[in-house]
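Quick start: what a row looks like.
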Amino acid sequence: MLDELHIKYPQYEMGRHMATAFADYGNMVDIWGLSGKEFLFALQKYQAELELDENNTAGEEFVKQILEDGMNLGKDKEDEWAEGADDWEE
């Protein structure tokens, strides 16, 4: 399981894998006392979470489009409001 994590996610150090996998066990987790089943379960759960995160990641182009849309939000309304303001002055 550790080899699989290392191969699949080489951008993360093994310490990060271990710390994150056992984070639910508390700050000062004593992994020495964990059974093999518990140890494997924690790593499998962590790997499943990584895979979910990976599948839900937005692509760079999608994020760029969202930012552009946000920057243009309300521009059409500004034009409408400006036209309406002319009517108010009369």
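That is the whole record. The CA atoms of residues 48 and 54 lie 10 Å apart. The mean pLDDT is 80.
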